[in-house]
Write a structure and sequence with these properties.
6-stranded mixed beta sheet, 5-stranded mixed beta sheet, mainly beta, 295 residues, 40% strand
């Protein structure tokens, strides 16, 4: 639903520090060539092609750094966990396609969007047969329903596959929005926990071995000391943080020197609430905003 006041302006495109933003490609009935970074016209579908695979990823600097994880790549990109952030626009028809390079069957579930049962990706229920290793599957297209912050993740053997990294964020953004609600900086943050104790080890599934204590907590797949460059904002910028908890533990998000305004929960706008700390439960998404006025 439309909120805010003032002129209609283009929305700020979200970014995900350290993770690829992936607008997919647009396929149109008339064969026309459409810029995937722009809203798709009627008669077109935005296609997201993802490959699930096994790879090594730097998680931390100390006491060990690299783990073997499961994650996603898009065409021409290196794999990551979280996977590429999918970006689509309000009212578009979207479609997922997954290729499976894992050692076991998998499926993809759009989390929080209004997909039909045939596109829901829950193995053995809405998707009777998950995608076997070495094969691919095209889900039917659908219109997500409304703008907001959402996610996608594996929904086959979930306690293993999600904990090994098969998840990512999905932003459905407005084609235009009122000037009063536009932000200057819009960033995605996926919260994950990792269970491994030896260099290069395969991440343990939920509740097994190192995953009983989860020694590493990360944002966008890396601990703070391994994350690289900080997020740079200017004094006075209005900032939106889109936070998704892909772990199995509750996390509290806190800013120093600023309050946050909670503007959305699980893809739905909520009456603004001022918070110092926001608890994010497993599977939840929040949109949190603040003005950078206290350098």
């Amino acid at each position: 639903e439309e909120t805010g006041t003032g002129d209609m302006v283009s929305a700020t495109l979200p970014t995900t520090p350290g993770v690829l933003s992936y607008p997919g490609r647009v396929e149109c009935d008339d064969g026309s060539d459409v810029d995937s970074t722009e809203p798709a016209p009627d008669g077109c579908v935005r296609l997201f092609e993802l490959t699930a695979q096994v790879f090594k990823q730097k998680i931390a600097n100390f006491p060990v750094s690299t783990a073997t994880v499961w994650g996603y790549s898009s065409p021409g990109s290196v794999p990551s966990s979280p996977g590429p952030t999918l970006v689509s626009f309000a009212g578009e028809s979207v479609r997922l396609s997954v290729a499976n390079k894992l050692p076991e069957a998998t499926s993809i579930h759009p989390h929080g969007l209004h997909q039909p049962n045939a596109a829901d990706g829950v193995a053995g229920i809405s998707q009777i047969d998950p995608v076997p290793p070495g094969q691919s599957f095209d889900y039917p297209s659908f219109v997500p329903g409304h703008v907001g912050t959402f996610a996608y993740h594996a929904h086959t053997n979930s306690a293993v596959q999600e904990m090994r990294g098969l998840n990512g964020m999905w932003n459905v953004i407005p084609r235009e929005e009122r000037e009063s609600v536009k932000v200057d900086v819009d960033v995605n943050m996926t919260l994950q926990i990792w269970g491994f104790e030896e260099e290069g080890a395969l991440v343990a599934p939920f509740g097994v071995g190192a995953a009983k204590s989860f020694p590493f907590d990360t944002i966008n797949g890396k601990t703070g000391d391994a994350s690289g460059e900080p997020i740079t904002i200017a004094e006075g910028d209005r900032v939106r943080m889109r936070v998704y908890n892909a772990s199995q533990q509750t996390h509290s998000m806190h800013l120093h020197g600023h309050d946050m305004i909670v503007t959305s929960k699980n893809g739905h706008a909520v009456p603004p609430v001022r918070e110092t700390t926001q608890t994010v439960n497993p599977g939840d998404f929040y949109e949190l905003e603040f003005t950078a006025n206290n350098p």
